[in-house]
Amino acid sequence: MPGDVLVMGAVAYDPKVVTIWAGFRAWLADAGLPFDFVLYSNYERQVEDLVAGSLDAAWNSPLAWVRAERLAAARGRRVRSAVMRDTDQDLTSVVVVRADSGIGAVAELSGRTVGTGAVDSPQATLLPLSFLRGQGLDTADVTVRRFDVGVGLHGDHVGGERDAARALMAGEVDAACMIDGNHLLFTQEGVLPAGATRVLAQTPVFDHCTMAIVDTAPPGLADRFVELLLSMSYGDPVVRPLLDLEGLRQWRVGRTSGFGPLSTAVDESGFYGPDGSVLALGYRP
After folding, report:
1. Rounded distance, CA 246 to CA 272, Å?
2. Burial class (CB in 10 A: 0-12, 13-18, 19+), 185
3. What does pTM read for this prediction?
4. Do residues 189 and 104 share a domain?
5. Which of 20, 95, 160, 196 is the most exposed place for a label (fewest CB within 10 A)?
């Protein structure tokens, strides 16, 4: 019966999403919480269903959070950021150049080509381009080459960032944008050979994914869901493999203080309207 089970949405950006949430579902059931999840192919549909009340909760990307908050407000509803991974807080993105490029300042990117991730990637497109504008670079004087891999997944698929990194080493772009953790990952993978690149610029910190809960969710079930997630221990042999797959050691209380830079980037680029409408030209999740 509706209201007897807490229903959460998650985007299937990778097959491991099924393993993670099926495992959490069993763990939550053992703890007495009736819980189920629905998988989505993209974040836009998930956000719309959350605000419509078809879902009680949604494991949202940061861009999905920005849209959910705007869409909910426009419809007289409210969403809250309930929990986040410890690895979602205080992240940065970097603008990387080849070590031998001779580019020493952001202003020197004028007239050059900058590689980014997918059109809807917060960390590899929206945030770094906003940061470069904030540093005084007129992005109208820059050729932005997007690598649209996994459009609709809000950058969860790192293929766009990886392709931008490859283009940097191939000399097809003069700089590439990526989250700082992926700069390290691509170096470990050999996509960016050790010592072959350097960080030209680094954004201020921002937050990433969050569990959004809509105000139509059954309050008792929603509160218990949050309580149980926060109680998960990395020392628990049942949940530890699932936490590893999801990329965290501990759930933390959610916050909204880290989404301001992305909201600004969304407005600058005209990606969403103030009411959460999708405005980005040619965006087809």
Report:
1. 28
2. middle
3. 0.95
4. yes
5. 196
